[in-house]
Amino acid sequence: GENYWQNVLVISVTFPAALLSVWMLRTTELRTLQLYGFGFSALVFLLIAVGWSAVSSDDTALFIMLLAVKFSNLFGAATTTFVLPSELFPTEVRSSCHGISAAAGKLGAFIGAFVFPYVYDWAGMSALFYACFVISLIAIGVTLVYIPKGRIAISKPLGPEHKAHSSTGSFEDGSDFAGNGNGTASTTTGRGLPVSPPRRDMNTSPYSADLSHPPNYHEESPLLA
What we know:
By secondary structure, this protein is an all-alpha fold. It is built from 6 helices and no strands.
């Protein structure tokens, strides 16, 4: 019975950590929130590593440290590392790069689970927490170098070459993909049909879009006229 309530308490710590991260996303930059998360993790790991010999025989102290580790695992970085890939990568490669990022995280977890028992046998539990502390510091450095400052737009418009109507296939100058000049393709029946816009140039970045005049994909279709 006692172990049951301990497990419930350990799991319940993850909810306020995740909710706090989501709440802070509304007012805090992703870069800053990620730094908070890695910084808190580094502090927890350092405290455990330094005081391991003193608290390793105290069950209550060990349980409190476990709660602190679980909270740090779900606070800050656990949220931003899922959000950042969907905001940083260009539209053309966002899905692929998001998958690669997720796979890299799973690979890191696999390496950690595989290597840690050997580190424990070789250097002890305190060394493990020192290693986690160093990894957290490296993560802070990577965040400072590679994550941009400021608010990151969650949705970025496509480039200027996509200022076409997906429903009509017409462009700003009135021409269309079929060259009719009226945004429709001629058919044998004389009825105008929508023409798909041209294939996107994969070498053009979506960041070149005119953010003050985003494309409008909901213009009136000739089929509705």
